[in-house]
Amino acid sequence: MALTPGGVDQDLPRLGHHRIRRPMFPFDPGMPDPDLTARLVAPANRPLTGPEE
Question: How do residues 30-43 score in pLDDT, each as one tens digit?
């Protein structure tokens, strides 16, 4: 029932995301495996410094 269309649809590729950085897993199935290594980010009370933050 969770994969039926509606307000809580969990079939993410079917939702049609357009304004995201590509490639993004799982929307682009032909992409290479994503880098899943952990990285440290600044605390919420400090300004962001990196290009992807």
Answer: 888 878 898 887 78
Task: Answer whether 0.70 is exceeded by the pTM.
Answer: no
Map tokens 């980010």 to a residue.
41
Distance of CA 15 to the CA centre of its chain: 13
Q: Which of 26, 31, 3 is nearest to 13 (CA)?
A: 26
**Helix/strand/coil (H/E/C) assignment for every residue in the chain:** CCCCCCCCCCCHHHHCCCCCCCCCCCCCCCCCCCCCCCCCCCCCCCCCCCCCC
The Cα 34–Cα 25 span in angstroms is 7
CA dihedral sign, ordered 44, 47, 35, 29: positive
